Every structure is written in C-alpha cells, then in structure tokens.
TrEMBL record:
Chain segments annotated as transmembrane: 12-42, 54-71, 83-102, 122-141, 153-173, 185-211, 231-250, 293-314, 326-347, 367-388
Start and end residues of each stretch annotated as Disordered: 417-531
Pfam families: DUF6350
Source organism: Streptomyces venezuelae (strain ATCC 10712 / CBS 650.69 / DSM 40230 / JCM 4526 / NBRC 13096 / PD 04745)
Keyword field: Membrane, Transmembrane, Transmembrane helix
Protein name (Swiss-Prot/TrEMBL): Integral membrane protein
Annotated Pro residues bias: 507-531
Skewed-composition ranges (Low complexity): 450-469
Domain of life of the native organism: Bacteria
Length: 531
C-alpha cells in the first residue's frame, strides 16, 4: 500500500499546511482591498499621492476591518486624529476567509490521506499564519498616513482572527452544542434574540433614512462632485449599513448613542449640541429636542426580541423545573447582551479629536440594557410559555341524562326527534305502537297524542289506517323497528351505515351469467293437400 507523502510528515506537516492556509487567507483579503483602492485611485481625476499612498490606504482599511484603530497624521491642524469606527460590512470578507481556512483544515479529502490535526491545533496554526501577515501589515502602515494604533492592534486583531478560526473549526465539527440541554437552548435563544434585534434596528434606520431623504440627498451632493467621488461615497455608505442597524438597535434599547462629547440621542429626546459631520447616513439621526410617540415606538424592537427569546426557551422547557427555565432564559439574556456589547464597540468609536472623540453607541450601556430587557421580559415570558405548555386540558362534562317515563333521553331544540328512545323494539311480525314510542320521549308534547297519532278515527270515517303510517313515521320509533316495516311505504327498505367513498371499494358486483340458449323453433309441417 502506497502512503501519501504528506503522511510521513505527520502532525508537523499538517500544522504547516494550516499555517500556510492562514497566510493565504490574509493575502487574499488584503489583495482584494488593494485592487479596489487602486481602481478608485486610477479613476480619480485628482489623485492624492502616488501608488504608494493607495497601497498604504488599502493596508489601513484592512486593519480597520479587523477592529484596529487608525491614527490620521495628515490633518489640517497637524495633530494626529484617531479613527475608530469600523465599517462592519468591510469585515465580512476577512472574517469569512479565516473561517474557511480553519474549516478546510479539518475537512479530510475524499481518500482520507490528508493528515489531520486537533481542533485546537488547527485554530492555533491558522490564526498564527494569519497574524504573521497582519504583523507585517501593521509595520508597513506605520510609514503611511493611516498608522495603526499598537494597543488596539494587539487586542482586537488577535481576538477577531482567533474567533473566526474557532468558528470555522466548530463548523467543520458539525456545529456541536453543549451537552447540557439548558445551555444549548440558551444559545439558540440568544441567536434568535440577536437576529430579531438587528433586523428591527435595520428597519428603524431605514425608515428614518427614508423620512430624512431630502437631507441625505443634500449631504451626498455636497461631499461628492465627480462621478468617482460619488462612487466612493456610495461604497462607504454600503459598508456602514450594518453600523446603522446597530445604532438603531441601541436607540431602541434605551441608551441611544452619543453624537459627540456632551450630546446624547435617546427615544426621550436629544440632549446637548450634536457635532455631526455632513454625511448621508448621519442625516437620518433624530434632531428633535423632545421625543414623540414615534420615537418611543422603537421600543417594540427590544420588546419583540425579548419575547421571542423567552418564548424559545419556554417551548423547550416543558419538562424542566421553573428554576432551570429561569436560569436558561437569564443565560440567554447575558449572552445576547455580550454580543450586542461587542457589536456596539465595533459600530462606534472616535472620528477625530475634541468633540468627535466619542461617537456612536456606548458598548457597556447597550450591553447592560440588553441584559435588562432579557431579564425583565424574557424570563417571565419563558416561565409563562412553560406553564402554558404543561397545562392538562380538562375533559368536557357530558350532559347528564334526565329520567323519563320510559328511560329515554330528553333532547331540546332542533335535535329533538333525532335521538331514539329506549323503548324496546317490537317483535318481528308485530306492528309498533306509536303511542309507546311517543311516550318514550321525555318532554314530548301531549298535544301530539291526537286521534291521528293513535291510529283511531273517532268519527268512524275509516281514515285511521291511512293516517297511521304518517303517525308511525313521526313517533321516533327505534332504529331496530325498521326491520319489520317500511317507513316510506317500501317493503324492501333496508337500513345502511354509510355510502362508500371514492377511494373505497364498494360491494362486489354480481357475476354476469351467460344468457340461456334460445330453444330451436320447431318446424311447421306443410298443410295437407286436399285436392
């Protein structure tokens, strides 16, 4: 049997392959941004700097997509200004590349000859290869107009890369959940609440942008003159759309977001003097000093998220105790709060110095508000859904039979006359007594016992027998009595249960017998000759 050459290397060869995969993923993301920035630089009628400046800009944007704060050195005042707002849509490509590299590291080939590593080894190798390339990019950016802040580069960059690699390994293993059922349900509820909160924030931001469409159009026309500049602004707006969704969610949660030092926008109103630079998306921010019911209606977003989150836990907790249900719902609230805090930290940050040093949602405030919504709304909803699912339906009581003259059941309303009485069926060959059948119904109308109903003719006209058939049809005779006479004047009447449906086979058809042969016609003799 011939072994694959990589198998001889064993574990070290597998780790080296994973490290190379991480470096390739970093190069692909950086190259894609470099191509985009270079194309914008070539198409610009007034390019600022040469190709080196375009490459430095691409390196800075790549680091910014990983959460690294940049420092602008070419400002009008000459003082360095920080830039920490991450275009969250720009982060999708690098995160997906790391995720795919880690996932493919643990996926065996079709013949099973590729050496395998442990999950932790795959995460470390892929992240290590990626971070080697990132370190080179950080050093390169220090000589450009957008230098990387070393503190945030040492914190956010490894955290994002390791998290994406861990998610890729988790996907390769089949996305296993914790063995404890409560933890697995809490994680699913966290995902549902986070998706609901993000979708609601996106809808709120879109509605506000549509309401302030005229202001947004004016801001767009003011900062973009040539078509290349307009295309660049449109691309920047698209990259910041997820940020607007997080801002909308933070606004609905209650803490809102800061618009500079001393300015805060909440559903209750705007406090302070906002320092908002001209930008199309920022034109959608609320500017009213006092909030109206329209601003307060956005509180339905976190309310719906908490209800869905608690309902998800409650539906799975029908067999749990109330304590386990409350702990699972509270764990989902804490997990969702942590995720919202991370997203808020990425969606906001400084845009400069002075009043622009604080801009966007405050991460710890939005995270704490998410936990409070989940604890105050999600936990009671989970307990209520659990109690509703554990209820035992009570059987409906049947009506008690009322004692009658002959032990029958009294039926009131239009159904009277449709329920047979308990009067025994007459013997075969005897004619049932209509008066006895009528007496077997409790609550029957005494006026019904007329001479016509008893089959007698007081006038002696001889019509009693003619009317007795109708009396028997209306006397509620038991069903067994129909075996001895025809209620509709048909002696061959036979009761039946139901007619066969279209998909059921009916009774077998009688066999078709051949026709009897026709006897031969006898020959007629000729008449005798009388001549």
């Amino acid at each position: 049997m011939t072994e694959h050459p990589l198998v001889h290397g064993g574990r070290s060869a597998a780790l080296a392959t994973a490290c190379v995969r991480g470096g390739v993923a970093a190069g692909l993301g950086l190259g894609a941004l470099a191509v985009l920035v270079t194309a914008a630089w070539i198409s610009s009628p007034y390019p600022d700097g040469g190709p080196g400046g375009a490459l430095h800009l691409a390196a800075g944007l790549w680091l910014l997509a990983h959460g690294v704060e940049l420092v602008r050195t070419d400002t009008l005042s000459g003082l360095p200004a920080p830039l920490g707002v991450v275009p969250m849509l720009l982060s999708v490509l690098p995160v997906w590349l790391v995720h795919r590299a880690a996932r493919d590291t643990l996926d065996a080939d079709d013949e099973g000859l590729r050496p395998q590593t442990s999950p932790s080894g795959a995460v470390a190798a892929v992240a290590g290869g990626y971070l080697l390339v990132a370190a080179v990019v950080v050093v390169y950016s220090e000589s450009g107009p957008l230098a990387a802040d070393l503190v945030t580069a040492g914190l956010w960059l490894p955290a994002v890369v390791v998290g994406a690699a861990a998610a890729g390994v988790w996907t390769a293993l089949g996305r296993p959940l914790p063995g404890q059922r409560q933890a697995a349900v809490a994680l699913r509820a966290t995902g549902l609440g986070l998706v609901t909160l993000s979708a609601g924030g996106a809808v709120a931001a879109a509605v506000s942008l549509a309401w302030h469409a005229r202001e947004a159009q004016a801001a767009y026309a003011g900062i973009a003159g040539e078509w290349s500049g307009r295309v660049a602004v449109v691309l920047l707006v698209l990259a910041l759309l997820p940020n607007m969704a997080v801002w909308g969610a933070a606004y609905g949660l209650g803490p809102g977001f800061t618009l500079g030092t001393g300015a805060l926008a909440t559903p209750l109103g705007l406090v302070g003097d906002p320092a908002v630079p001209p930008f199309p998306l920022l034109a959608a921010l609320p500017t009213e000093a006092r909030g109206t019911w329209v601003h307060g209606a956005i509180a339905a977003v976190p309310l719906a998220a908490a209800v869905f989150q608690g309902g998800r836990v409650g539906r799975a907790a029908r067999s749990w105790t109330a304590r386990d249900t409350a702990l699972a719902a509270l764990g989902a609230a804490w997990a969702c709060g942590a995720a919202v805090a991370v997203l808020s930290a990425a969606a906001g940050g400084p845009l400069g110095t002075g009043r622009l040093s604080v801009f966007g949602p405050v991460w710890w405030q939005t995270g704490a508000a998410t936990v409070l919504w989940g604890a105050c709304v999600g936990v009671p909803v989970a307990l209520g859904v659990r109690a509703w699912g554990r209820r035992v339906p009570r059987p409906k009581p049947l009506p008690a039979p009322a004692p009658g003259a002959a032990g029958g059941v009294a039926v009131a309303g239009p159904a009277a006359g449709l329920v047979p009485s308990a009067t025994p069926a007459p013997e075969e060959g005897s004619r049932p007594d209509p008066a006895a059948g009528a007496a077997g119904q409790v609550g029957a109308d005494p006026a019904a016992e007329t001479p016509a109903s008893t089959g007698t003719d007081p006038a002696g006209t001889g019509t009693g027998d003619a009317d007795s058939g109708a009396a028997r049809r209306d006397a509620h005779v038991p069903y067994d009595a129909y075996d001895s006479f025809g209620p509709y004047g048909d002696g061959g009447f036979e009761p039946y249960d139901y007619l066969p449906a279209a998909w059921e086979s009916g009774p077998p058809a009688p066999p078709i017998l051949p026709a009897p042969p026709t006897p031969p016609t006898p020959a007629v003799p000729p008449p005798p000759d009388r001549s």
